[in-house]
């Protein structure tokens, strides 16, 4: 399905995200029962819940003094530190890399002047991708009024809005005074029915999954040793191969999120031995995300571990008719497996904040729209 077909009615939006009160309560209780650093080792935040217009949301609170902090609660970490780290993708083009670093450096004072690190973030599940429930203008006005009174010195932030899943919510947020700050390019594998046409790459992935010597591990088959190994596998991929700026999810986090029914798990293991690949799936209403992916990067690429766990997630989405947000990264890989690109935004409300901060956020919005989005699309960042 082409992006144009998926967006031909841009203000139509299915209500695909449920935010079940029970799941929100379990999540908030976890982060109040257990010290945050025992769950996400590189994160400082406070977690609460809020109900607005009949919707329940997890809520995070962060102060500027928390920086440097994990980017899931720290815009300066996302727009400065993570952006600089991403220039590693251009090591073969030193002039371009230098130019991008210079551009990011020039924008850093603007990001700091915005004060966005001093924030209240709505709907923050502490994942890189947090699917957002459908919000109309009345609900947005209610939540904006409530949060601005309760947190008069904090920017109000909602992450993970994208052009395919959230067109109506984005339009309503803009109409209620929210600024849309482009963040990254993500990939959507939409529900295409129970038997979608498969690309050749998808067919090869499933053939490999059917012939691998590794044993599939189901959601009910995870032990304490598997949780510890899952942390290792996630760290090998997201913290060592990619960047230590990614959330450092611990074994305790994976265990608690699984046992409390927030994440489901699947993986591959050596016959009679340890896990070699793992994935954690977050199902929220009719939407699926994949916040945990990891594999043994010391094994040969020919084993196809990443290909197989991604195939498992796509099959899970297809079997249940779910809208699968595959998040960012591995652009070519995801395109070849039926996903389409979309720009993701952070929505920010600052109407109750000092003029200096409001102006900085407005300028950020303009710079990101005019320079950031073309770069994201050109280099699939």
What this model shows, in words?
With 381 residues, this protein is an alpha+beta fold. The chain folds into 2 domains: 222 residues, no CATH class; 141 residues, Gcn5-related N-acetyltransferase (GNAT) (Aminopeptidase). It is 43% helix and 21% strand. It contains 13 helices and 11 strands. An 11-stranded mixed β-sheet has the order 1-2-3-4-11-5-10-9-8-7-6, sandwiched between helices. β3, α6 and β4 form a beta-alpha-beta unit. α4 runs antiparallel to α5, α5 packs antiparallel against α13 and α9 packs across α10. The N terminus is likely disordered.
Which word captures the global form? Answer: globular
Give the low-confidence spans: 1-10
Fraction of residues in helix: 40-55%
Radius of gyration: 20 Å
- Number of DSSP helical runs: 13
Distance between the termini: 21 Å
Mean pLDDT level: 94
Give the neighbour order of strands across the main sheet: 1-2-3-4-11-5-10-9-8-7-6
SSE ordering: HHHEEHHEHEHEHEHHEEEHEHEH
Helix/strand structural class = alpha+beta
Number of strands: 11
Indicate how many domains the architecture comprises: 2
Major sheet: 11 strands, mixed
């Amino acid at each position: 399905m082409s992006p144009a077909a998926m967006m031909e009615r841009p203000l139509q939006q299915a209500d695909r995200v449920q935010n079940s009160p029970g799941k929100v309560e379990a999540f908030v209780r976890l982060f109040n029962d257990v010290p945050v650093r025992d769950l996400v080792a590189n994160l400082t935040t406070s977690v609460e819940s809020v109900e607005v217009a009949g919707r329940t949301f997890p809520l995070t609170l962060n102060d500027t003094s928390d920086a440097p902090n994990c980017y899931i609660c720290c815009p300066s970490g996302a727009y400065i530190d993570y952006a600089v780290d991403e220039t590693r993708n251009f090591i073969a083009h030193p002039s371009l890399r230098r130019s991008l670093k210079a551009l990011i450096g020039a924008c850093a004072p603007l990001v700091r002047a915005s004060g966005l690190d001093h924030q209240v973030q709505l709907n923050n599940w502490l994942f890189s991708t947090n699917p957002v429930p459908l919000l109309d203008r009345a609900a947005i006005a209610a939540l904006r009024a409530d949060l601005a009174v309760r947190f008069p010195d904090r920017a109000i932030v909602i992450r993970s809005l994208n052009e395919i899943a959230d067109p109506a919510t984005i339009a309503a947020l803009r109409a209620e005074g929210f600024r849309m700050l482009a963040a990254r390019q993500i990939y959507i594998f939409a529900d295409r029915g129970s038997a979608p046409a498969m690309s050749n790459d998808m067919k090869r992935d499933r053939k490999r999954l059917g012939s691998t010597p590794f044993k599939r591990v189901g959601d009910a088959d995870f032990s304490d040793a598997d949780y510890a190994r899952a942390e290792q596998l996630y760290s090998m991929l997201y913290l060592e191969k990619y960047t230590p700026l990614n959330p450092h999810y611990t074994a305790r986090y994976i265990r608690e999120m699984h046992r409390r029914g927030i994440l489901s798990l699947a993986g591959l293991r050596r016959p009679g031995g340890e896990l070699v690949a793992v994935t954690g799936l977050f199902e929220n209403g009719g939407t699926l995300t994949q916040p945990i992916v990891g594999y043994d990067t010391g094994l040969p690429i020919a084993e196809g571990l990443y290909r197989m766990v991604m195939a498992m997630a796509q099959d899970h989405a297809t079997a249940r008719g779910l809208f699968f947000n595959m998040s960012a990264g591995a652009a070519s890989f995801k395109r070849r497996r039926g996903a389409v690109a979309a720009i993701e935004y952070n929505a920010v409300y600052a109407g109750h904040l000092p003029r200096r901060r409001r102006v900085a956020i407005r300028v950020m919005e303009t710079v990101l729209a005019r320079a950031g989005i073309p770069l994201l699309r050109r280099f699939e960042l």
